[in-house]
Amino acid sequence: MTILLPLGENLDLAAPLAHYREHGYARLGRVIAEEQLERLRSRAEELMLGKRVVPELFFQHDSDTGSYEELRYGEGYVGPSLHYRKLEKLERDEHFRAHLENPLFERVARAVVSDAVSIYRATLFNKSRRGGSRLPWHQDAGKFWGLDRDPVLQIWTALDDCTVDTGCLRVVPGSHHRGLATPLGGSIPANIVERERADERAVEVPALAGEVLLLHNHLWHGSGVNESGAPRRAFTVCYMDAGTKCLRRKRAPREFVRVFVHA
Predict the structure, then answer these.
(1) What is the pLDDT of residues 13-29, one digit of tens each?
(2) Domains and their CATH numbers in the chain
(3) Cys-Cys with 223: which of 86, 119, 135, 156 at CB 3.0–4.6 Å?
(4) Distance between CA 105 and CA 119 in Å, rounded?
(5) Residue 115 DSSP symbol
(6) CA 181 to CA 189: how far, in whole Å?
(7) What is the pTM of this model?
(8) Neighbouring C-beta atoms of residue 31, cutoff 10 Å
């Protein structure tokens, strides 16, 4: 199974990691093979349409209006549809699992996180042909995540061309240096967004299919709606120190999947 292009096999990580540490994000370039992209796109459609069932996947369908505030929670799989906003726990699928454990991602994770690595989540974010949802400014960390320490690394793969028209990522460079906007994390309140002039400071980060980005969990990021009429899919994995513990008490604490464990 070919996952990486030759460029990705021995990519020099010094410059991307320096950019990630300074700005909170970085490009690794177009390093994923087209045959791998097609595998993941096809598998994503099979899962959304119910043609393949992987136990315990998490599904969230998009709102009818494209409004983030009108998303419904707790419904899970609601039937065959290509309008799911996200699919989580994709480490349970063999194609997505192979992707997130490829040698390039292992080199990055061990350089940034630890020699012992687990994942918090492996998620497909989908903006369907009808537009998807606008994602407001947010941070992927805080009490909402229920961990004893915040993760710092997400590796994001564009499965389709992610342009301004399709709702590419927007970031506020350097925003990770100031930590969490609120202890809870997640969506950033409007008054803080205005105070920090996030919309003025924002940078669009378009990516071609096969490009890979590094994101710090504290980086302010969001995205717009898809106005292209073509699907816009990206697969993102949050890597963290394998010693990270779940703090939740209402249910049994989560156990996280170790990765890059070689026989």
Answers:
(1) 999 999 999 999 999 99
(2) 6-64+72-259 (2.60.120.620)
(3) 135
(4) 12
(5) S
(6) 8
(7) 0.95
(8) 21
